[in-house]
Write a structure and sequence with these properties.
Two copies of one chain form a homodimer. The first copy, chain A, is an alpha/beta fold and 301 residues long. Chain A contains ten helices and twelve strands. In chain A, helix 3 (83-98) crosses helix 5. The first copy, chain A, folds into two domains: 2-80 and 267-299, 3-Layer(aba) Sandwich (Rossmann fold), CATH 3.40.50; 83-257, 3-Layer(aba) Sandwich (Rossmann fold), CATH 3.40.50.720. At the A-B interface, helix 3, helix 4, helix 5 and helix 10 of A face helix 3, helix 4, helix 5 and helix 10 of B.
């Protein structure tokens, strides 16, 4: 069994994997039956004719070159491995905006000591969590601990500290806080339109820590122009890592912007955990067990 | 029974009180046996020779003119009536700083799209909650829901989602997040000194939503100058409402500053709840029941 590994594995994890498989690099990738990668290109996939299994280190699988991945290749993601990091960040963005910390801190720094905006409560307020996977579940748990009335939206019914709905409008209508942790796939691309954002509380906060493309960019811009007290807080951008492409949105006064760091950027503990869980899942496949987080190909192609 | 009321009560609450007592204003305050107030001055206290009970609408009682309040006068605070608001705000400040939302948002607004600081985790990190009353308990519950290892500090042992300690150094040592919700009294004034802040994680965040005077101002300034990554986030100031007096601290780059708004500033629901609970507690006293939140005079004089 040969495994193509395109990330730097710490020695102990490389050892663990080497006990049951041979790690090969780019020069011998054509022999690989499995691949362990952070990102994988179409060229890489095409260079592995014996490929049967791809273990991705990220939770999201939208970046895979699905069109060239043969249907018999099993793809596993890594949901949950950095879910704490992302969920905490989502709540941090939501509260920083909703509780007016950003607003008042900016005023205080300018020497404007007067008070203008009132501070709304999370307790007793409606919050919507979109996407009820590992991240969404953690976000809902934290918001519920704060006394929010949480609505949970996803395609498949899941139990948790929320009122479940498959109706996006029901989830968002009147919501003061909404957090999207939706994966990007063919069902979620462009899912959130103007009418959904407009259904929220006019002084509400919409947080996106999933993928930018789930929200229609024009819809976000329109609502932000129409409702100066509505806040759009996002860690993910339509231009992906080319943030300059979204400068038009980032500079709006009612936007809170961070550069795709929610997943534990620069945090060795989070990265180590992601690698560990990915290797563990790859080992499950090698041992003939069922790996976790197997992608449903039909979500993407 | 006559009650001196120095706040505007909504008609229904005024009616409720009027059924068992006569509400009097400043012109007849010398007849009052009880007082319901937001703030009360020494002159007001001295003008009520028949006074037996003071119901304050705020949770904190440090602003009372204790030196002129006769020992036989029972004073009741209003702890808990806006505890949700304050606790949510404390967590918002802590996360906005700790998760680098403020840092990255500022950079993005300036068009600096690169990443520098790593994003630490709350999950698995040590957090300290100072003061285990209604606010501290709620803060601890939220941090515990995020997976933090919470240490709870107070004078009297209380059960909750924390490891209890009476040792301030034990609570703060190595803590990544600390939230002070301590009341200001003769035991807590100046309690938090340089060595306590220095014992925290050098990239930690100290949040104060209690009273500024609990922290030595010089200690805060010194630690902020020495440790550029340490963050001091405060809603309360040594100059009280005269924020200009603390401009030297507010302008420091590693300070997050808000103008004493945590307790639900401008939030009618929070204010209504505070008035309701204060009236309810006053009615307890009038009916001969034991009011809640009776102050321990020896904490103040």
């Amino acid at each position: 069994m040969k495994v193509y590994v395109s990330v730097d594995l710490p020695p102990d994890l490389a050892d663990k994997l080497s006990r049951v498989a041979e790690i090969v690099g780019r020069d011998r990738m054509e022999e690989a039956e499995a691949a362990l990668c952070f990102r994988i290109t179409a060229d890489e996939v095409k260079s592995m004719p014996r490929l049967k299994f791809i273990q991705v280190i990220t939770a999201g699988l939208d970046h895979l070159p699905w069109e060239v991945v043969p249907p018999h290749v099993v793809v596993a993601g890594n949901a949950g491995s950095n879910a704490d990091a992302v969920a905490e960040f989502a709540v941090a963005m939501a509260l920083a905006a909703y509780k007016r910390v950003l607003h008042y801190n900016e005023r205080m720094k300018r020497g404007e000591y007067s008070r203008d905006l009132g501070i709304p409560l999370v307790a007793g307020s409606k919050a919507a969590v979109l996407g009820l996977g590992e991240i969404g579940t953690r976000v809902a748990k934290i918001l519920a601990a704060m006394g929010a009335e949480v609505y949970g939206f996803s395609r498949r019914e899941r139990e948790g500290p929320w009122r479940f709905t498959r109706d996006l409008m029901e989830a968002l209508s009147g919501a003061k806080i909404a957090v999207s942790a939706l994966p990007l796939n063919k069902y979620t691309r462009g899912l959130i339109k103007y009418e959904h954002l407009a259904a929220m509380d006019p002084e509400g906060v919409f947080v996106n820590v999933g993928r930018a493309e789930v929200v229609e960019k024009d819809a976000a811009v329109r609502i932000l122009r129409e409702r100066p007290r509505f806040v759009f807080a996002s860690d993910v951008w339509w231009g992906r890592n080319d943030f300059a492409k979204d400068a038009d949105v980032i500079v709006l006064p009612n936007v809170v912007a961070t550069p795709w760091v929610a997943g534990g950027y620069g945090n060795e503990k989070v990265w180590r955990n992601m690698l560990e869980e990915a290797v563990e899942n790859l080992l499950r496949w090698i041992r003939g067990e069922k790996p976790r987080n197997i992608a449903d190909r039909s979500d993407y192609v």
